[in-house]
Amino acid sequence: MTKLTVVGVDGTETAHKVAVSSAGFAEALGAHLHVVMGYSQERAEVLGIGNDHPAFSDEKYAERVACETAEAVRSVRLRVGHFAVHGSPSKALIQHAEAHDAHMIVVGSRRMSGIGRVLGSVANSVAHNASCEVYIAKTD
C-alpha cells in the first residue's frame, strides 16, 4: 500500500516552504502527497464591474491556492493531488488525513511562539488531535 502525506497550505510564503519540504519527504518515502487548504465559510461575493459580475468564493480561492501549490511541488516521481476542504484549517487537515488513511500530516510552525502560542495555532491543534504522525516544519 502506498503511503500518503497531507500538507496544509494557506497561500502564504511560509506555507509554500512547508509544501516544498513535505514534497521532499513524500518523494523520499515513496508516498503520494495531498495539498489541502481548509476554508471556513461557504460564502460568495459578486462584484459588479460594468456588465461583468464575477463571483469570488472561499471554496474557489482555497481550490486555486491548493492547485497552484500542488503544481509548484509536483515532480516526475511524485503524485500530487490538491483539495479544498470545508472546515477550519486544522479540522480540514485532520478530516482529510483520516478519510484518506494518511500516514503523516505536515504543517508549518507559524504562530507557535509568542501570543500565537497562547491563542493556538493550526500546528498545535493538528499535533494534539490527529490520529496519524504529525511533522511540524520550522518556517521562520
TrEMBL record:
InterPro entries: Rossmann-like_a/b/a_fold, Universal_stress_UspA, UspA. It holds the Pfam family Usp. Residues 3-138 form the UspA domain. Belongs to the universal stress protein A family. This is UspA domain-containing protein. It comes from Arthrobacter liuii. The gene is uspA.
